[in-house]
Design a protein that fits this description.
Length: about 400
């Protein structure tokens, strides 16, 4: 039985102007914004141009607070646990900087963490002398929970850091079960939800994470240049705060003393692109109204259909994991990456190239230098899935 009726899907596509012009299978890069999100951003820019930037922020104070509420509801927490930042990488860096690492500390991560996260870890190892340990995988590709438990028991890490959905494949890590292992050892736990928010059901309480970073622009269908960080009550009560605070996150009490604010806003900066905050809040509320569970089911179904269709045309699908999501990676050995990407663009199909440099460990294991990344979302259609698969076959044929 379909997730939605044809009329419901048509209404969702009518909400999405980009559907009129492109077959958008690059939601893992940036999703197409719904009209409500576009209008929220434009309306605030218009207000800023009319009365001034600071004055517009004051005038929209209630709507800004509603944005915290909507994002908090989307991930299962309270507004006080949400901090708005420029993007997911900033959110992640703010969380990392709050952990009191010392020389010799261990950070446990995975073989499939996001490239920027991996580089941050290596930079910290170089500067602070911490050790990076990657937990083993199962044969299916996700983190081996028994291996993770043994790794934590052996090394006693300061932090466990996991990317929920890697950028380079459809793998979904078992973040709830990983969180349960972290709680056994009372280990701090950071989750990168950049690629999962908006296509997977996110509940920070079930995950048991201390921090979760996310972006607005991808499957959430919000604007670029906006993201947020969730900080748990435990993290806040531990007085964890970013290394570089500003006057949004702390109060300068005396000449040589400051106090951090009690909420997650200690991770924010004073200056905001409030149009993008409002766009993010609107995108979060839109996702809630559409129905997060239904979105997750339909997106996974479309991606599974795409994997089956391209495999039927003889392509090697690179995705692994017991659970897979809306990211589909396909090897196209007869083309150069940029040329194939441009060929799809000329056919009106949006996609992305995922190269070895984005996923050194994973792609070396798979023996590939690049893959075409296709990421449908719930507003895409079954006809578009068939069109994309047949176009790949046509382009790759001799």
């Amino acid at each position: 039985m379909p997730i939605w009726s044809a009329e419901r899907l048509a209404a969702l596509r009518n909400d999405t102007p980009g559907c009129e012009r492109r077959v958008h299978f690059n939601n893992a890069g940036a999703g197409l914004m719904p009209r409500l999100v576009i209008d929220a951003i434009k309306d605030h820019i218009d207000l800023e141009s009319d009365i001034g930037g600071y004055e517009a922020g004051d005038a929209r104070a209630a709507a800004i607070e509603d944005s915290y509420r909507a994002v908090a509801e989307l991930v299962g927490t309270r507004p006080a646990n949400i901090a708005f930042v420029e993007n997911a990488t900033v959110a992640y860096a703010q969380a990392l900087s709050a952990i009191p690492f010392e020389f010799g500390d261990v950070l446990v991560t995975t073989t499939n963490d996001y490239i920027s996260n991996q580089i941050m870890f290596l930079s910290m190892a170089r500067r602070f002398g911490i050790e990076i340990v990657r937990a083993p995988d199962t044969e299916a590709g996700e983190v081996d929970l028994d291996g993770l438990r043994a790794t934590i028991d052996r090394y006693g890490p300061r932090l466990v850091a996991v990317t929920h959905v890697p950028t380079n494949s459809g793998l979904v890590q078992p973040v709830e079960q990983i969180g349960a292992v972290c709680r056994e050892f009372e280990t701090l736990y950071l989750v990168d939800a950049c690629q999962s928010l908006g296509q997977c059901t996110i509940d920070v309480a079930s995950m048991g994470c201390d921090f979760l970073s996310a972006t607005s622009r991808k499957f959430l269908r919000g604007p670029r240049g906006a993201g947020f960080l969730y900080a748990s009550d435990r993290a806040l009560q531990m007085q964890l705060a970013p290394l570089f605070l500003d006057m949004q996150g702390a109060v300068w009490e005396e000449a040589d003393r400051y106090e951090v604010v009690p909420t997650a806003r200690r991770f924010e900066n004073w200056e905001f692109a409030y149009a993008l905050v409002l766009g993010t809040g609107t995108a979060a509320q839109y996702a809630i109204d559409v129905g997060v569970d239904a979105v997750a089911k339909r997106t996974a179904i479309l991606a599974a259909s795409l994997r089956e269709a391209v495999a039927a045309h003889g392509f090697r699908v690179l995705d692994r994991g017991s659970t897979q999501c809306g990211i589909v990676t396909v090897e196209v050995p007869t083309w150069e990456a940029a040329d194939f990407h441009r060929a799809l663009e000329r056919r009106g199909i949006n996609s992305a190239v995922s190269t070895r440099g984005y996923a050194v460990i994973d792609y070396d294991r798979k023996g590939v230098e690049w893959a075409i990344r296709l990421s449908p979302h719930y507003y895409n259609t079954e006809d578009e899935v068939e069109l994309v698969a047949s176009t790949l076959a046509e382009l790759a044929s001799p």
